[in-house]
Amino acid sequence: MEERDEPILSIRGLRKSFGVKEVLKGVDLEIYKGQIIGYIGPNGAGKSTTVKIILGLEEGYAGQVQLFGKDISTQSAAYKKRIGYVPEMADLYDNLTAEEYLTFIGELYGLEAEAAGEKAGKLVELFGLTEVYHSRIASYSKGMKQKILIISSLLHNPDIFFFDEPINGLDANSVMVFKELLAQLAAQGKTIFYSSHIMDVVEKISNRIILLHNGLIVADGSFEELKNTNSEGTLEEIFNQLTGFNEHKETAQKIVSAVQEV
Ligand SMILES: Nc1ncnc2c1ncn2[C@@H]1O[C@H](COP(=O)(O)OP(=O)(O)OP(=O)(O)O)[C@@H](O)[C@H]1O
User: Rounded to an integer, what distance in angstroms lies between the CA atom of residue 142 and that of residue 63?
Assistant: First the structure.
C-alpha cells in the first residue's frame, strides 16, 4: 500500500467569484497519490475553474491550494513540470507537424530536444499515428488531434494528471487503451484527476468520485459508497438524484413542441 498520510493535493475553503457570481463557495478536498478521481458536476458547476486554479491559470481566489505539499501561490512555477494536462478545448499549433509540436512541448517541460523527439516518436507509434507524424496537425481528424494532446500530457512523465473530457473523439479501441493506461499509471503511483460528463466511463475508471454542485462538493466516495448512500443504481441516476433533476422527459417534450411551432 502507498503511504497515504500526505495528500498530493489539498484544497481548503476554496472560493472563487466572477463578478458578482460566486462559482466556488468553499471547496475542501484532499487527494492522495495513486487515486483516480472522477470530478463531475452539472455544466457551469465550477469544475474547470477548480482545475485552472490548481494549474495556476486562474488567480484571485480565496482559500488554500497545496500541491506536492506546498502552497501553489508561493512555490515557483517549476511545480507545473510535474503536471500533465489535457484541456477540454485546446489550440494546437495546427501549422506544425506532430513531431515539431511534441518536441516543442517536451522542451517546454525541460526535456532535451533530442530526448523529447525520441520519446514523442515512440508514443506516437504506440498511439498509432506514425504515418502522420510528419504531417501538419491541421490535416488531422478530431480523434488524432486528441491523441496528440494526450501524448503532450505524458511526455514529461508527470506525477499528477488533469484530464478534461480526454476521450473526446477517440474511437472505441483507443478508449480501451486509454482506460487501461489510466489504471496502469495509477498503479505506478500517478494521481489522476478526471473531469467528464460521460457517467458510465467515470463510474468504471474512478476509485473515487467527487460531485460538485452549486459551488460545493455534495458527494465524495467510491462508486460503491455513493450507491450505498443513495437509493439509485447507476452513476447517471445518482447524478440526477443529487443534482435534483428529474425532468428530462418534460424538457425534451417542450423542446420538440418548440421545434414544431410555426
Ligand atoms: N473567465 C470567466 N469569466 C466569467 N465567468 C466565468 C469565467 N470562467 C468561468 N466562468 C463562469 O464560472 C462558472 C463555472 O464555469 P466552469 O467552466 O468552471 O464550469 P464547469 O463545471 O467546468 O462546466 P462544464 O461542465 O460546462 O464544462 C460558469 O458560470 C462560467 O460562466
Answer: 38
Residue 28 scores a pLDDT above 60: yes
The mean pLDDT of 68-74, rounded to a whole number, is 91
State in Å: Cα 41 to ligand 1 middle.
Answer: 12
Handedness of CA 219, 169, 129, 132 (dihedral sign): negative
Q: Stretch 198-204: mean pLDDT, rounded?
A: 92
> How far is CA 186 from each of CA 44, 204, 253, rounded to the nearest angstrom?
28, 14, 43
- Identify the pLDDT of residue 242: 86
Residues 153 and 85: their CA atoms lie apart, in Å, by 5
Nearest alpha carbon, ligand 1 atom 16: 46
Distance 39 CA to ligand 1 centre (A): 15
- Residue 254 Cα distances to 43, 242, 257, 260, angstroms: 20, 23, 5, 10
Q: Is the CB of 16 under 6 A from ligand 1?
A: no
C-alpha cell at 92: 494546437
Give me the residue label for grid cell 413542441: 257
Residue 148: closest CA among 197, 97, 192, 108? 97
If one residue of 47, 50, 193, 218 were mutated to test the ligand 1 pocket, choosing by the most ligand atoms within 8 A of its CB, it would be 47
Q: How far is the CA of 102 from the centre of ligand 1 (A)?
A: 29
pLDDT at 177: 95
